[in-house]
Amino acid sequence: MATNDTTTNGNRPLALVTGASSGIGLELARVFARNGFALVMNAEDAALDEAAAQLRASGTDAEAIRADLTEPGEVERLYAQATRDGRKVDALALNAGVGAGGDFARGTSLDKELRLVDLNVRSTVHLAKLGLRDMVGRNEGRVLFTSSIASTMPGSYQAVYNASKSFVQSFALALRDELRDTEVTVTSLMPGPTETEFFERAEMQDTKVGASDKDDPAQVAQQGFDAMMSGDERVVGGGLSTKAQALASRVLPDSAKAAMHRRMAQPGSAKEEQ
User: Fold this and answer.
1) DSSP H stretches of helix in 6-92
2) Looking at 56-65, 139-148, 172-181, 258-267, which range is the least confident one?
3) 231/155 Cα distance (integer angstroms)
4) What does the alpha-carbon distance between residue 116 and residue 44 come to, in Å, rounded to a whole number?
5) Distance from C-alpha of 20 to C-alpha of 28, rounded to nearest angstrom
6) Among the residues of the chain, which ranges form H helices?
7) N or C: which end of the chain has fewer CB within 10 A?
8) Helix crossing, 72-82 with 123-138: angle to 10°?
9) The dihedral sign for the CA sequence 143, 148, 153, 156
10) How many CB atoms lie within 10 A of CB 6?
11) Does 4 score more than 50 pLDDT?
């Protein structure tokens, strides 16, 4: 499926990127900028303003809209601001998300996990509804969901996070099939462990996966952008070890994948490797 990416916003197509203050989201914004897109960048933290300012300094039309997407009214406000004055979102990168590590029954915070569901799941559905409704009306557009290879395995000690990414993956693939008779494309980006602030924020620095070498977020973002522009169904983001892990997950039983995930994500597992 091909999408007409000629400008709908002045001289450049417009990309809306969530979670754009750091990590994969910021790198996605940079890739969009290098490829001639104007940007609406979203996150809730102050680092977003500096990130957008850096892109503007390099000649990109980049607008920062700080909004907490765990609040439905903030999702509505973000999209309304992004599309004001008749602007049209040509590419929607639904990247915002958080993690939460630990023992679900005995060690984690319910408030944090419900906030995770609100951000990773509910806001993704909400913003996809707003964006896709307009794209289908125009019969053009591209959507990139940041899923994860975590979506393919039961997440021992990351139970809610992995489940949220399983939702995102299933949701993206279902929408892609629903829209196959249109010129709107839906692509799923499936990163593995990536060098971002994710593990610090998820309080997983003492885990094997938290302490391990990780993929470059710039590489992951470029892979996601290329797959989206090609209209691909999905892409595993990262290096060879991540791709090998994704291949293994296709054949291993869920019990084996859960046990493997336990070894990577169990609190204190980083010390066991020393």
Assistant:
1) 23-34, 47-57, 72-82
2) 258-267
3) 29
4) 14
5) 8
6) 23-34, 47-57, 72-82, 110-117, 123-138, 159-178, 198-201, 208-211, 217-230, 240-249, 254-265, 269-272
7) C
8) 30
9) negative
10) 10
11) no
Domain coordinates of the chain in residue numbers?
A: 14-272
CA distance 81 to 127: 13
Please tell me the distance from the alpha carbon of residue 106 to that of residue 108, in angstroms, as a whole number.
7
Name the residue with higher pLDDT: 247 or 160. Answer: 160
Banded model confidence at residue 200, pLDDT cuts 50, 70, 90: confident
14-272 domain in CATH 3.40.50.720?
yes
pLDDT-derived band at 23, boundaries 50, 70, 90:
very high
Q: Residue 84 carries which DSSP code?
A: G
Write out the catalytic residue numbers: 161
- Interior angle at CA 89, CA 162 and CA 217, nearest 5: 40
Taking the CA of residue 17 as centre, how many other CA atoms within 13 Å lie in the half-sphere pointing to its CB?
Answer: 30
3-state secondary structure of 253: coil
In this prediction the pTM is 0.91
With tokens 């949701």, the residue in question is 171
